[in-house]
Amino acid sequence: MKDTPIVILNxxxxxxxxxxxxxxxxxxxxxxxxxxxxxxxVAPQHMDLHRVSEAVEIQVLAQHIDPVDAGGHTGSVLAExxxxxxxxxxxxxxxxxxxxxxxxxxxxxxMRELEMMSVVCTNNVMTTAAAAALGPDFVAVEPPELxxxxxxxxxxxxxVITGSVDAVKKVNPEVSVLCGAGISTGDDMxxxxxxxxxxxxxxxxxILADSPRDALLDLVxxx
Amino acid sequence: MKDTPIVILNxxxxxxxxxxxxxxxxxxxxxxxxxxxxxxxVAPQHMDLHRVSEAVEIQVLAQHIDPVDAGGHTGSVLAExxxxxxxxxxxxxxxxxxxxxxxxxxxxxxMRELEMMSVVCTNNVMTTAAAAALGPDFVAVEPPELxxxxxxxxxxxxxVITGSVDAVKKVNPEVSVLCGAGISTGDDMxxxxxxxxxxxxxxxxxILADSPRDALLDLVxxx
Amino acid sequence: MKDTPIVILNxxxxxxxxxxxxxxxxxxxxxxxxxxxxxxxVAPQHMDLHRVSEAVEIQVLAQHIDPVDAGGHTGSVLAExxxxxxxxxxxxxxxxxxxxxxxxxxxxxxMRELEMMSVVCTNNVMTTAAAAALGPDFVAVEPPELxxxxxxxxxxxxxVITGSVDAVKKVNPEVSVLCGAGISTGDDMxxxxxxxxxxxxxxxxxILADSPRDALLDLVxxx
Amino acid sequence: MKDTPIVILNxxxxxxxxxxxxxxxxxxxxxxxxxxxxxxxVAPQHMDLHRVSEAVEIQVLAQHIDPVDAGGHTGSVLAExxxxxxxxxxxxxxxxxxxxxxxxxxxxxxMRELEMMSVVCTNNVMTTAAAAALGPDFVAVEPPELxxxxxxxxxxxxxVITGSVDAVKKVNPEVSVLCGAGISTGDDMxxxxxxxxxxxxxxxxxILADSPRDALLDLVxxx
Lengths: 223, 223, 223, 223
Hints:
Number of domains of chain A: 1
Largest interface: A-B, 44 and 44 residues
Structural class of chain A: alpha/beta
CATH superfamily of chain A: Aldolase class I
Number of strands of chain A: 8
Order of helices and strands of chain A: EHEHEHEHEHEHHEHEHH
Largest sheet of chain A: 8 strands, parallel, barrel
Radius of gyration of chain A: 16 Å
Strand content of chain A: 15-25%
Number of helices of chain A: 10
CATH topology of chain A: TIM Barrel
CATH class of chain A: Alpha Beta
Helix content of chain A: 40-55%
CATH architecture of chain A: Alpha-Beta Barrel
Oligomer: homotetramer
C-alpha cells in the first residue's frame, strides 16, 4: 500500500475527469503505472468511484469521507459504502473540503479499523505536525496559495516540504509525507522527492494537460 | 416526472441500503411501482447511485448536490456528475444535510437548467413557504422531531401539512407538497394525501422493515 | 422602528470600526441622524456592541445571532445576551455569515418573540422572495459580486431592486426591502429609493471614507 | 499567565451567566482568586466580554475567535477586537464550537503574535497530541460524552488525562494540559491534578450550582 514514491491524482470536480472521462483518465493512470512501475492512485468523484474501481487495478481513493456511522445521515459519505464501492482509502481534509480536527481524527481512526489508506491534507508545517500525531498513512502538505497555480511548491516553498518531513519525523516517523500544489513536471516531482517527500498529490497540472498521458509520463520520468 | 402521488424512498446511510443491498432495495421499489402503478423514486448514497441507476427504470435522485460549478471542489457532489451517473434529480436541504438559503437557491436553479427534478426538504410551514418561493418541483416538509420516530406527521401534526399546502398555494402554486417524518403505513400515506400532500418522502419505516416489499405494498395500498 | 428610509451601517470587522473607533463612528451616525432626521442604525462587532449601545440613542443591531436557546453553546451569540447588551435587533444571513434556511427562520421568529428588529440579507430576487416568506422586518438584497466594489447596485443591477420589491409585495407586503452593495453616495441612495427600496445597508463606502461624516451627509442628502 | 493550577470558568450561553449575572459571576471568581490565591480565568459571552473585563482583574478569555484578518467579515470575532475589548486570550475549538484544523492553527498563531493566551479544547488523546503540535499555551481535553454530565473525567476516564499528559510531553513539552467535563468538586480537581493536569476548564458544575461561590471554594480547596 505504501509502495513509494506514490503519485496520487485527485480528479476534483473537473468535467475533464467526470463520468466517461474519469474512466479514461483512470485507465491512463493504470497504463502509466504498468509501464513505469511507479505506484499510482486515483481519487475520482463519489459518484464515479464505483465504476472507476471496477475498471482499474491501481488504488482508488475517495475524495472525502464523512465522520459518521451507518444510520440517518442523508447526503454523507459513509466509510462502509466507500469500501463496498471499491475504495482503498481516502483523502481527508483537502483544502477544498476542510474538516474539523475531531472529525479528521475520527476518519483516520476509521480508516485504520477498516484497513483502508488515509491521506490527510494539510496547509503548512504546523498542521502537518498536528496531522501526523493522528497516525494516518500519509500527510500531504499543500500551501493553499499554490494549489492550481502551476508554481510548484518544491521550488516556491521548499522549506515547507523539508520542514514537514522534519516535523513528522519527530512526531510520528511512521507517517509518510507527500506534497502537492503546483506540481506537474518531472523536475517538480524530482525536486519534491529530493527534499524528502515520498510522493505527490496533484490534479489540474495533469487533468487539464493537452495530453494527461504525456504529462504523467513526464512527471514520473526522473524518479 | 411529477406523476403524483409519488413515493420517494431516501436510502440515507443505512447499511441495510448500502452497496448490494441498495441494488436489492431499488429493485423492490421498481417491482412495487410496476405492480401498483404508483410513481416511485429512490435516493441512494452517492457512491451507489450509478449502479442503482443502471439497474432500475424508476427515477433515481441524489441525496444532495453541492452548489458548485465544475472545477476545483474536491469532495463535492457536482450536478453534472450526478446527471452523468444517472440521477434524475436530487433531494436538497434534507434535515440531515441542511444548506444555506443562497445555496438551496443555487441548486434549485441548476436543477431547472439541467431539467432535473428538485425536492427541497423543509422543517415547518414558514420554511416550506420560503422554499416554494425558489420554485422547485417539490417541497417535502418534515418536522425534524418526528423523523425516524415512527410517529407519522400526518397524525401528530396534520396542521403542518395543511399549513404547508396553503402556504405553497399562495407563494407558488406550481410547487407540489410532499410530507415525511414517521410515515410508514398505508393509513399514514392516505392521511397525508387526504390532507393535500402529493406524496411522501420516507426512509427508516421501509428500509428497516422486516420486509421492505410488504411495507411498501402496504404504504401504497390506500391511494 | 420601521421609520423609513433607513440607513444601516454595518461595521463589519474593519479596524476603522473596532473598539474606540466603533464608538466614534456610532457617534457620527448619531449626529447625522440628529442633524438630518434620517433614521440610522449601526451594527458593530459583538464585543463592541454593549459599549456602543450605551453611547448612542440610535438603533444598534447585532451583526449575527445564532439559532440557539440559552445553555451549552460556547462561542455562540445568544439572542437574550444581545438584548441585554442593548441590541435592538440583528442582521441575519449576511453574505459574509450565510446561514441555513432553517436557522434563518429560527432567528427571525426569535426576534419577533423578543420584539427585536430582523434584517435578513439576501443575494438575489429569488432568495429575497424566500426570505420575505419568513416575515422579517426587512430584507436587504445585496448581489455579492458588488459588495465592497464601489459599484452601486442601484446602477449596475437596478432590476435586482425592482424585482425584489415586486417579489416581496407578492409574498409578504409587510416586509420592507433594503438594498446594499456598492452604495456610498447620495445619488446611489436616491436611485435605490426611487427604485422602491426603503433604505440601504452599507459598510466600506462609509467606514473607509476619508470623512465618514461627510460621506454619510452626502449619502442622505437627496432623500 | 501560566501560573498553575489554573481554573478556567467557561460561561457558555447560560442565562445564569449572561449580562448582569456575568458580572456577578466574574466578581465571585475574582473574590475566590483573591481569597485562595488560585489562578482563575473567566470566559464570558462575546457581548459581555468588555464589561466583564472592565470589572475584574483576573484573566478574561474569549469563548471563540474567528480565523480572519480585519476587513469584511460580518458577524465574525476579530482577534484585534477581542484584545481591544480586554480579552487576555481565548478558548479555541471548544466541543460546542469545533473548528477546522487549519483554522485552529491560524488562531493559535495569531494569539502568539498578539501575546495572548490560547487554550485549545480537544476530545481525546489523539486530538490532544495533534493540538499540542500547534504550540498553544494550554490544551484542555474534554471527552464530549462527559461534558455537562456531572461525571468527572478524572474518575470516569483517568486514562484520557494521563494519556494526554504523556502525549503532550512527547510532542511539545511546553504545552500544559488541562482537563474538563464533569469536573465540579474539590475531589474532582485534586484527582485531575494528581493525574498530571495543570488545571481545569469547567462550566455548568459551577454556573448552575446553588452557590457558585461555595462551589468554587470547594473546587479549589484541595490543591
